[in-house]
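SAMPLE LOG
Freezer: B-3
Tube label: C17
Construct: single chain, 99 aa
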Amino acid sequence: MGSARIRPKLLPEKLLPIREFLNLGKVDMANKLQLEILSHSGNQYRIKPGRISEYENGRREPNLFVLIAYIHLGQVHLESVVDDDVIVSTFRKRLGKEF
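STRUCTURE (predicted):
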């Protein structure tokens, strides 16, 4: 059996600031993510509001489509979100400024 995949430790702590930057509750964030995925991939993808909490608390990791939707909404680069060398306070300053 293989070992578990390495995950960015700060990812959950960076997803919440994106939602806060957008000034959205969990239900609205789930809806925005769904619309973003639909507009970029042409595929419908259902996200329950409870998933948002799981992503932000680190109980679940978003798939690539959801992560890309977060990135587009937060107007930040992928590296800013997944690179643990970018600390959360620096990440918050970058929100809305990298695109």
